[in-house]
TrEMBL record:
Keywords recorded for this protein, A-Z: Hydrolase
Designated name of the protein: Thioesterase family protein
Organism: Exiguobacterium indicum
Stored InterPro entries: 4-hydroxybenzoyl-CoA_TE (IPR050563), HotDog_dom_sf (IPR029069), YbgC/YbaW (IPR006684)
Highest taxon listed in the record's lineage: Bacteria
Family: Belongs to the 4-hydroxybenzoyl-CoA thioesterase family.
Keyword Hydrolase belongs to the record: yes
Keyword Hydrolase among UniProt keywords: yes
Listed CDD domains: 4HBT
Protein EC: 3.1.2.-
Gene Ontology terms for molecular function: fatty acyl-CoA hydrolase activity
Length: 145
C-alpha cells in the first residue's frame, strides 16, 4: 500500500468549488505512479523498452465530495495480479478519514507497436516478482483492516 496527499487546487473544481469527477482519475494516476516508484520500478524504462500499460477498465464510486482547499489522501494497493492483468485498488479520503471515493483500475502491459498484451513474467520478471509479493502483502493488510 502507498499513500499520498494531494492538495485540491482551484483549477480542479467546478463552479461550486467541488472537485470535477474526472480529476479523481488524475489523483489515482499520481498515487499509482508513486507506488510504482516506491517499489523501485519505472514506467519510463518500460516505455523506453517499447511497452506501455493502458487502463482497460475504471470503476469509481463517489461517496463524498472534495472541495477547493481540501487535501485528498489517496491510498493505492495491488488488489489483484495474475501476470497479465493488474488491478489497483484505491481510496480517496478527506484528512479526517471520511471516504470521498473508492476505485479500481485495471491495466495490461502491451507492445507499443501492435498493442498486443504481454505477460510480465516473461518480459519484465522484476516487475512480476515485486507485484506478486505486493499483491500477497496488500491482500494480507486488507484482510487485517
Amino acid at each position: 500500500m502507498h499513500t499520498i496527499e494531494i492538495p485540491v487546487r482551484y483549477a480542479e473544481t467546478d463552479m461550486m468549488g467541488i472537485v470535477y469527477h474526472s480529476n479523481y482519475l488524475v489523483y489515482l494516476e499520481l498515487a499509482r505512479t508513486e507506488l510504482i516508484q516506491s517499489l523501485g520500478l519505472d514506467y519510463k524504462e518500460m516505455e523506453d523498452a517499447g511497452y506501455v500499460s493502458p487502463v482497460t477498465n475504471v470503476n469509481l464510486d463517489y461517496k463524498r465530495s472534495l472541495t477547493y482547499g481540501d487535501t485528498a489522501v489517496v491510498t493505492v494497493w495491488i488488489d489483484h495480479y495474475d501476470g497479465l492483468r493488474t488491478i489497483y485498488g484505491y481510496t480517496v479520503k478527506h484528512p479526517d478519514g471520511k471516504l470521498a471515493v473508492s476505485a479500481k483500475t485495471t491495466h495490461v502491459v502491451v507492445k507499443k507497436e501492435n498493442f498486443r498484451p504481454i505477460r510480465l513474467p516473461k518480459v519484465f520478471p522484476n516487475w512480476h516478482e515485486i507485484y506478486e509479493k505486493m499483491s500477497e502483502t496488500d491482500a494480507a493488510l486488507l484482510t487485517e483492516a
